[in-house]
Amino acid sequence: MLQLQCGKQVYLQKPIIYPPRMSRLAAASDRPTVSAAASVADGLGQRLLTIYRPGAQLPSEAEMAADFGVSRITIREALKILSGRGLVAIARGKRAVVTQPDGAMFGAFLTSLLKSDPKSLFDLLQVRRSLEIQSVILATRHASRAGLAAVEGALSAMRAAAAVIDAGAAGPEAEQEFHRADVRFHEALALSGGNRVLTYLFEAMESSLLEAFATSHRGQRLAGQTMENLCQTHALILRHVSAREEKAAVEAMTAILDNAEANLRDAVGNV
Known about the structure:
There is one protein chain. It contains twelve helices and four strands, in the order E-E-H-H-H-H-E-E-H-H-H-H-H-H-H-H. The protein has helices spanning 24-27, 34-50, 61-68, 72-84, 104-116, 120-142, 145-166, 172-192, 196-204, 206-222, 227-242, 246-268; strands spanning 2-6, 9-13, 88-89, 97-98. A hairpin with a 7-residue loop joins strand 3 (88-89) and strand 4 (97-98). Helix 8 crosses helix 10 (206-222) and helix 11 runs antiparallel to helix 12.
């Protein structure tokens, strides 16, 4: 107690005790705000990319709360944010597990964009021009025998579906199988080049490519082209890549993209 004397009277006053200084995140621990959880998610996300491998379990919520100086509720919200980004898998009563990013969110965004705005089909094609040309260049330089076999396997699946479609007895299932095999062809080509980022982008675009290929196919029918015509242009790419003929492979890929653009315009018009 402190004595304060004023004239003849003495007053007793309790000392003022100030709380210890807290970090910004710790101050938010009592009241988990969006910003606090987002800050923790960003910090934890950096660790996921630099320290933890896919499949690894994260520390307990209590351990992470002590580490970041926040409440367990804030940690829980941060994990939900990371789960939404596709970086962790969370389940009640279990520790969060680091996942392998698969581009699902990016792919969902592209598919939604294609369905809502026909012009985005041409935006996607412009992006594909850069990616596909780089893909075929790297494949020509680095594709192994196994990589080329994967490309050839996708082409064989395209031809099997094309034979059924061109015979006129095919339903939607055969057309879908053709487009899936077509996407696998381009994915395998990217994978054979050895660039992981490029491969990831093709995998992320898979659903949007299926949408674009189906639309292009409508224009292809209007132009009187058969599915075997498309198989032949893809076979030409494989032949040049296998022979390490970079310039010819690029020209063959450019021809496919030019044809795809023309088919898209026939299908949806000049938007």
